[in-house]
Structures are given as C-alpha cells and as structure tokens.
C-alpha cells in the first residue's frame, strides 16, 4: 500500500514516519521547500524521542520520502492523509482554511478510488464539508472521506503511534472500512481495539478526549488549593483517586496548569463548536477560565515567596517547555509566569534542556543559561516549572551554595518537603500544607 501525508508538522511527520516503519510506502508533502529539503537530509524540525532514528532509517530504506509536489503524491496514493494545522481563530473556533485548501488540491488530482483521511484535529462536520468540497471541484471523483484522529502525546508520540491503546476510524462505507482495516492490519493482529464509527462520532471523540483530560488536570489543581489550606497532601489524594478504576491515575498531577499545542486549542474549539450547534459546553468553558487563572496565580506565588515584592530580584526558572521531552512552548505556563514576573520588575534567568531556542522566539530580556546551576546562581528564588528528569537529580547542596537565598518554589512536586527542609531551603510545593501553619490550626481557621 502507498499513502501520502500532507503536512509535515508534528502530527504529519510522526504519522508518516511511523506508517513507513510499519512497512507502508509513504510520501510526506509540504509546501515549505526549505523544510522538505532539510527533511530529505534527515534534519528534523521538532524534538521527539525516537523520531529522528525512524526518519533516517525509513528514508534510507526508500519507504519514506518528502516532496512539495502534491499532484504526484495524491495521484499515486491509495489513501491521502490531511495533517495540516488547525490553529485557533480570534474567536476560538478552529481555523479550517488549511484543511479545505488541501481538500481542493486533492480533488484536482484524484486518480481512481482514494481515501481522504483527516488526521488533523477538526470540529464535527468537517468530513462532510471536505466531501462537499471535493465533489464541487471534481463531481466524478471516486473517493471516501474518513476521520482517523491521532492520540499522540508530545514526548511519547512515537511510542503512542506504535503501541496505541485504541484506533478510531470514522467512515461511511464498507469499502473505506476495508482499506483502513488493511492499513492498520498489524495492530488488529496485536489485539489493539479498532473502533469503527461515523465520521461525526470520531470527530467529537477526539475533542472530547482532550477536553476530559484538561478537565482532570484542572480538577486536581483546585483540589491542590484545598489541600494547601487544610493540611492535606495532593499527591496522596491523587494516589487515592488513581486507585479507583472508574477514575484512573493519569493526568492527576497537580501543577501550574495545562499548556501545549492541543489542550488550550481543542478546549476553545470544542466550546465554540458547542455554541454553534446550540449545545453549550459549560464545564469546559469553566475549565478554560480556571486554567488561565491558575497560570497567572503561579507568578503571584513567586512574589509571595519573595516577601511580596519581586522588583529587582533575580528569579531562576527551570524549564520553559510545557512538558518534558519536547521543545514545544506553545501556551506553556512558563510564558505567563515569566511575563508577569518581568512586568513586576523581576530579573529572569532560565534554563531548559531542549526548548530554549523556541522560547527565545517569544520571550524577551531573559538571561538564558547553560545549565540548572547557572540559572540558580545569585537567584533570590528558584522556580521549577517543567519536570525534566535532570531536574530531579540536581545536587541541591550545590544549588544552595550558588543561590543568593535558599528558596525554591517547586511547581511540579519533584522533591520532598522534609528533605528540602533538612538541607536548609525555604521550600514551597503545590497542594501541600502552607509553611509555618499546622494542619490543625488551618482546619480550625477555616471552620471558625
């Protein structure tokens, strides 16, 4: 089987490379000539563990190729995957202009029966609109439109693709189902659940999944606030919740709020889609509001830990990516935190193992450091924003020695309060008792 993937962004490149790894002939298409030439040389524009090895291996095996020629790619393919971006518009609704532009290009170059498959995250009704566009451009076209959303987590996308927990296929004909079944046949042999449904159900399911996970994160963050005021421990609460099979342990780590390329964009798009169809998504609207406030509140915590005034003080930031194992800083909590601290007069020194080059494009007047210890040097407070593995094994005695004041705000709870206290740090965590007030005293205060 030969397929083409239009769009070599995060979803398109990972999907195309992994399909090639499964033994399928794949051509990836992009309009950016420089990007295509770099991909041909094995230069990968994103950081994703394992991806570069697969691209180099499959390019050498001639199962994976890159081109700017949409016509030749579509003409020779049994299935064409649309994997272009769907960024939010100013009103929050998903911008589908790239998807529809690609649909028109596909329509002009269809050659025999072809599947047109959306990998991009799109609102419900997009498959039907793609079908309408293709028929308008090419009334005699022999094709089906399929919704096949991705469920890839940045930082583990290759693993997620090669070892999925489910595959979702929204199609309308047995013919389309047969082709998609053949494409994913290796997974059916491995007993991976393959759910066949309508395109509409598939499109909604993708948004629903991301919105639900965003809701779990926001929920545990609010529980963390309650723990701080009453003497509870959010990590133990999360563990107790996670043991409940109805809830599950994933996405229950309290922190500075969710960010990245998916959750903020998809929650906004879902709420706008709900309004469009007179089905308001009020829970998710509240999740969005709480999450934004959460990120802003983290900057306030830094100020409070510094005695209420941050002007002229040096703040060390560890981690700017929205999560570890990625260089993605889109809507990362670090951006809001740093921006607000700078507005309050703080001097920022920051370090991230991978994401600094991307962060430099959107952050100004930051002292970028070569390592964690340089970021901590002469700082009045050190703030752990991203839970990179290397931050979990720092020599804390060395950290203390280079800091101006031994004060740490750990927004990811990667250290233990007792250990940090023994080392002489003023240590602030998330979802744990506020220092200097016993849990009993706080409970009495709240009940009084």
Beta-strand content: 5-15%
- For this structure, what is the CATH class of the largest domain? Alpha Beta
Total beta strand runs: 14
Strand order of the largest sheet: 3-2-1-4-5-6
Supply Rg.
Answer: 24 Å
Helix/strand/pairing category: alpha/beta
Task: Please give the CATH architecture of the largest domain.
Answer: 3-Layer(aba) Sandwich
Walk me through this protein's architecture.
This protein has two domains: 196 residues, Rossmann fold (3-Layer(aba) Sandwich), CATH 3.40.50.720; 221 residues, 3-Layer(aba) Sandwich (Rossmann fold). It is 46% helix and 13% strand. The protein is built from 19 helices and 14 strands. Strands 3-2-1-4-5-6 form a six-stranded parallel beta sheet, with helices on both faces. It is elongated. The C terminus is likely disordered.
Write the SSE topology.
Elements: E1 2-6, H1 10-21, E2 25-29, H2 33-40, H3 51-60, E3 64-67, H4 70-75, E4 79-82, H5 97-109, E5 114-118, H6 126-137, E6 143-147, H7 157-162, E7 167-170, H8 174-183, H9 185-189, E8 194-197, H10 199-230, H11 234-242, H12 263-276, H13 282-305, E9 314-318, H14 333-343, E10 347-351, H15 356-360, E11 367-368, H16 372-376, E12 381-384, H17 396-402, E13 407-410, H18 417-422, E14 426-428, H19 439-447
Parallel strand pairs: 1-2, 1-4, 2-3, 4-5, 5-6, 7-8, 9-10, 9-12, 10-11, 12-13, 13-14
Summary?
The chain has 448 residues and is an alpha/beta fold. Helix content is 46%, strand content 13%. The strands form three sheets. The protein has a six-stranded parallel sheet with strand order 3-2-1-4-5-6, with helices on both faces.
